Amino acid sequence: MIKKTMIVAGSLLLATTMQTIAQQKIFKVTAEVKGQDTYKLAISRLSDGKRIMDTAVAQAGDRFVFTGSVTEPVVGTLTSSHPAARFEVVKGGMFMPAPSLDFIITGGEITISANAEELYKGTVKGGKENKELDELHKLEVPLVAKEWELRRKSTGLRKDTVALKAVLAENAKVKAELVAMRKQFIEKHPKSFVSMMLLSRMNGDYEASAYEQAYNKLADTYKETYIGKYVASRISGAKATAEGAKAIGFTKIDNHGQPFTLSSLKGKYVLLDFWGSWCGPCRASHPHLKALYEKYKDKGLEIVSIAEEKSDDIETAKKDWLRAIASDGMTWIQVLNNYDKKESNMVMAYGINGFPTKILLDKEGKVLFKHVGDGGDELDQKLKSVFGL
After folding, report:
1. What is the pLDDT of residues 252-309, one digit of tens each?
2. E-strand stretches of the chain
3. Structure pTM?
4. Are the beta carbons of 186 and 195 closer than 8 angstroms?
């Protein structure tokens, strides 16, 4: 009886293992990048929410070969350390990244042809997804090139407000053309993974209802992929943070190693602060938060800062997080989203698409106010209206 049970259990384990292996799809990317020379070339991709960097397994001159495996369609981005891949905004280390070259990895062979000086203008072949993306890419390139030119030009016009205003207006026009082109593609290609990819990046380019409608019109084929679930989270997050909506509850580990549950603060006004140690504007907003906390904590305000760290290694994320808390003198409740993130991702659940983001809850846990940014005068005025001072 015991042996039979062991055989059955072993068979189930083998079946599960074989199923997992079957789901893995091997890919090979061959990139011919003229002028790349000795500069590093890599492929960046998201796998189940985690960032993976693939380095070349073989190189011969300007020819690079990458291999790996995926379980579902993912977006790959070719990244380079070539000087042309970024623009120095301020001498001493502040850079602006050049446009990227994206492609779709589904398994099989992919070939990329590009020039290191203008990597984003490259062409990609391999599979119907990349054929569709390349067709769109060819239409986009003149606009992307113009936008890149205007972005660089604007950095040298900080003191010439009239010229800067003109450049920014021209850039806005170019961006509007790109957005219109991408929306048209999404509408015409509801069965394409490229449409889901575009939609995942265009949350801010639609009104909330129009964004949901665009998603609903897409085929179900890719809605269970990570990127499909991400788009769905943008929609549910917008609803969850609409004024009057009941805030999503959660339990996360705090900076003292103890579990914190949002519902424990019922009866208090709660300011949710989404931030990260890597985020300059977030860190710059902390002195203001400290002043607000001192002013209102005895009146019934509590702050809960929810950190999203970039490292997928939990110990590294924890160190970066704790170091920033100590450095910035943050004395209110601190939790780390990276803990148990796969099962409880509050950044995704709340549809956060910019850091910092502030969300003010009333005593019953309903949303009173949401602001993407440091909050500034708008947050001050809202708290003043709530507390009367």
Report:
1. 999 999 999 999 999 999 999 999 999 999 999 999 999 999 999 999 999 999 999 9
2. 25-34, 41-47, 50-55, 58-60, 63-70, 74-80, 86-90, 94-97, 101-105, 108-115, 123-125, 251-253, 259-261, 269-275, 301-307, 333-336, 357-361, 367-372
3. 0.77
4. yes
